[in-house]
Design goal:
With 272 residues, the protein is an alpha+beta fold. It is built from five helices and 13 strands. Helix 2 (61-70) runs parallel beside helix 3 (87-97).
Length: 272
């Protein structure tokens, strides 16, 4: 007997939207590593170069490494934050770049069959890290969202870095995404120097970080996805950048070899 078209469609949608398997503990799983030698003296001219990159489902790691190693100004990055990663892909990228790293998965993605989470990579030692649980489980796949936090020792200066991936518009309402942003802001309040970066799944959410005392260098970047400017960097405790009128302090790298549905975004943070 032939199934009604509406029933077939419902079954297909249900199969395609299976719930994720969340990791509900703030303690882990946790993965981290470091190269044999890391710089302990900051010689970067009082600036940190930050990159955020959503490597869609961690599918094309070799291509992502190529992009990060060859597409200017990404090879100069001091801090790289990644989203939609698993531990193996994170380690491969960190090893290729010679960076220390920490990674926490938020969930096991049912479509991918592997972990799905956020990472912080640094040319400087990571001396503390944390998995920050964000409020509101998503409505479509019931997915938990997190931010991976790391305290990076830049010379003698501690910088708190967050790799964030907020809920999508199809998952949560804007008010709930604001709650997620405020959770990160509350944790960041204890630190004088802070970098928050990642896939915010919103442009307007930047106003919450500005209200929290952050600079928003990526506000006027062009689209970072096909239609939206959703990938951002926010800075607290860093000084406003000054220089030649044509000098750029942020941008979006377009030539990414089909690695992801998001383009990597870079910004320069000037230490006080």
């Amino acid at each position: 007997m032939k199934k009604p078209t509406s029933l077939v469609l419902l079954l297909a949608l249900t199969a395609g939207c299976r719930a994720v398997l969340n990791y509900p503990s703030a303690l882990g799983p946790r993965y981290a590593g470091a190269p044999a030698a890391l710089s302990t003296v900051h010689a970067g001219g009082h600036v940190l170069r930050v990159v955020t990159y959503n490597v869609q489902w961690g599918k094309h790691i070799d291509r992502a490494i190529n992009v990060l190693e060859t597409r200017a100004p990404l090879p100069d990055a001091d801090i790289v934050v990644l989203q939609e990663m698993d531990a193996d892909g994170t380690q491969r990228i960190a090893d290729a770049l010679g960076m220390s790293w920490v990674y926490y998965p938020a969930a096991v993605h049912p479509k991918l069959g592997h972990d799905f989470g956020n990472a912080v990579l640094s040319r400087w030692p990571i001396v503390e890290d944390e998995k920050l649980m964000l409020p509101h489980i998503g409505g479509l796949r019931h997915a938990q969202r997190i931010a991976t936090a790391a305290t990076v020792l830049v010379g003698a200066v501690k910088v708190r870095v967050y790799s964030a991936h907020l809920g999508t518009p199809s998952d949560i309402r804007p008010s709930k995404r604001r709650d997620q942003a405020h959770t990160i802001l509350a944790d960041a309040a204890a630190y004088p120097l802070v970098i928050i970066a990642g896939d915010m799944n919103s442009h307007g959410i930047g106003k919450e970080f500005v209200a929290g005392g952050f600079l928003w260098p990526t506000e006027h970047n062009r689209f970072t996805t096909a239609l939206f400017n959703w990938d951002h960097v926010f800075l607290k405790g860093f000084t406003a950048l000054e220089g030649a009128p044509d000098q750029r302090w942020t941008g979006v790298v377009r030539d990414t070899l089909g690695t992801s549905d998001h383009d990597p975004v870079w910004a320069v943070a000037q230490l006080p």
